[in-house]
Amino acid sequence: MPDSLSFELARMAQEIDSRFDLLLTPPQDSRRTLYEAMRHAAIGGGKRLRPLLVTGSARLFAVEPECALRVGLAVEAIHVYSLIHDDLPAMDDDDVRRGRPTLHRAYDEATAILAGDALQALAFEIVSAEATHPDPFVRAELTGALAAAVGPAGMVGGQAMDMAAQQLAQDLGMVTRLQQLKTGALIAFSVEAGAILGRVAPDGRTRLRAYAHDLGLAFQIADDLLDAEGDPQSIGKATSKDAAAGKATFVGLLGVDRARMQARLLAEQAKEHLAGVGREADLLRDIADFAVDRDR
Question: How far apart, in Å, do the first and last CA atoms of the chain sit?
Answer without folding.
Answer: 13
